[in-house]
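Here is the promised in-class demo. Please do not try to memorize the tokens; focus on the logic of going from shape to residues.
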């Protein structure tokens, strides 16, 4: 089985790309979905996360609010590192379980936004990076999450620069154009890897 890591900086089009791969019948797991599930349902993780922010209001409707947590961690590198330390361990475990469950498939994909930041390259046989221009990503992030330009830039600046990630990737998908062009590139990668 070919273990594929799909990554890209924030608002590069990972979720849309995940769905294109899924349309080919390829199983995909998303680190974002894992984190969402952990923060909603895992009592142990909820407790650990709550302990990082003892005085902060990070709940909404009795659930941990990702938006409130984001507002805090993107203004404090120290708190962000503490949060990532808790979550990365859990995410790695879930991805390993996912690959184990799919070991009889030709391939399986894990979509991991912080793949390089968390130094997870060795978990994968192939890494696909989705590249999009900074201005396009900034607009997408502001529109999608209703963030101010200043806060959106803060989130983008917290990630490793794209230029450092490109040489570490096996395939690069350019997502500055339309959906058809994105689909065409993904189709070419699937053909190139001979995974269907």
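The designed amino acids, position by position:
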């Amino acid at each position: 089985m070919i273990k594929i890591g799909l990554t890209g900086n924030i608002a590069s089009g990972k979720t849309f790309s995940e769905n294109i791969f899924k349309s080919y019948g390829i199983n995909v797991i998303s680190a974002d979905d894992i984190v969402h599930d952990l923060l909603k349902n895992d009592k142990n993780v909820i407790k650990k996360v709550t302990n990082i922010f003892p005085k902060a209001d990070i709940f909404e409707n009795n659930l941990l609010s990702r938006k409130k947590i984001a507002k805090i961690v993107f203004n404090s590198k120290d708190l962000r590192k503490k949060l990532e330390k808790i979550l990365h361990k859990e995410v790695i475990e879930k991805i390993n379980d996912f690959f184990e469950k799919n070991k009889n498939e030709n391939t399986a994909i894990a979509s991991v936004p912080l793949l390089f930041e968390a130094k997870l390259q060795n978990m994968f046989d192939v890494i696909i990076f989705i590249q999009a221009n900074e201005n396009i990503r900034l607009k997408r992030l502001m529109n999608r999450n209703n963030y101010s330009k200043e806060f959106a830039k803060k989130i983008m600046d917290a990630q490793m620069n794209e230029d450092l990630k490109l040489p570490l990737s096996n395939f690069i998908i350019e997502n500055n154009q339309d959906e058809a062009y994105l689909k065409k590139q993904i189709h070419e990668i699937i053909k190139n890897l001979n995974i269907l």
